Amino acid sequence: MSEDFKKKLEDYSNGLLSKEETEEVEKELDKMELYQSYLDSLMGSEEEPEKGPSLEKKLVKKGKWKARLQNAWTALSLLLLFLIVGWVTSAIFYSWGSPSRQDVYSDVIKAAVETTQPNITIGSTSMNGGVFTMDYEGELRKMIGRESETVVQFQTKFLFGFFTVDLPDSLSERPFFFYPENVVNYRIQDGFDQLEKLPEGTVSELYITFTDYMSTDEFLKKMEDKEMMPVWMAADTGRENERESNPIGPSEPFGFPYMGYGFRSDFKTVSKEEKKGLLGGYSAETSETESMKSYGDGEKREAEFLKALHLIEEYRGRTEHLHWQSKEELIAKIDYVEKNGVRLYGAVVTGPSKELLKLKEEDWVGSAKIGEKRLWNW
């Protein structure tokens, strides 16, 4: 064995050879193993068997293990680099803009749910970033009496700008509204019949249809002195814009929550505090949005509703499982509302059952369907 080859073997065992030189040495070692096997077969048992692996085999084994470790370390380094790049990219992507994409996507989900689901609001939420993704988790809540109770937990995953919003089918099992022009023909008041049978000490959820369209301010004025609370208002988006022709009432009502949407993009920073020290620092900011009068600010509420419609239309592909409207149908609804204004034809109200029963005597209430019922919490 030449000194040059011995030097190459030593470099091979230490992983110092190039790829081409490594392949060349391994070929030579393979040849040497074949020669050794041939000689052993010729010599038979005349010679003592080797006491242990040859130097060449030791070097080969050592070199192969070093190569494996190097490959494993390279793969691990690439994986860590991929994760770091993914997290950094996600953080930049979702925080980009003013308002940020994170806030916009949160508003889209809020608009889609609270516009299409009567008396359903999104409670506490959390958004956790991942590798090119973000997990969104939230509570769906319903107001019955004075208590806002959790109906179900739901979640969705953002993959950059792609996400969908799916809700349990059970939410579609709810009372329905009528069109005011048909309420005389379909004056269903079995909700009041059920309220009469309920005992004192209970609260209920009631779906009412008006005998005529009215503005938001007009409806809130009627509710001001009553011992009950509106929670959701059904808005006219044009009968010809209904996906399924229904002469009695809308199969997929659109409306808006009494408490407002509370869009993240509407919050404004009013104060910001930063402190720095030797070991780091922190920053804190306070944000707030415009408040609304309990029984007024109809224009603000209606402007929020229009904003919600535009968000649903812009992100239709992500929210279609809630409304099943085509882009053209959504645009038609927006055009109708912008042309005719926001006209309410019904609402969901809640309060003491016997107080709700008094609505039977109001000439502006055409029909009533009862929803959830609970023990007293008013």
TrEMBL record:
InterPro entries: Sigma_reg_C_dom (IPR025672), Sigma_reg_N (IPR029101). Residues 195-372 form the Sigma factor regulator C-terminal domain. Keywords: Membrane, Transmembrane, Transmembrane helix. Residues 57-147 form the Sigma factor regulator N-terminal domain. The chain crosses the membrane at residues 72-96. Pfam families: Sigma_reg_C (PF13791), Sigma_reg_N (PF13800). This is Anti-sigma factor. It comes from Bacillus infantis. The lineage of its organism: Bacteria, Bacillati, Bacillota, Bacilli, Bacillales.
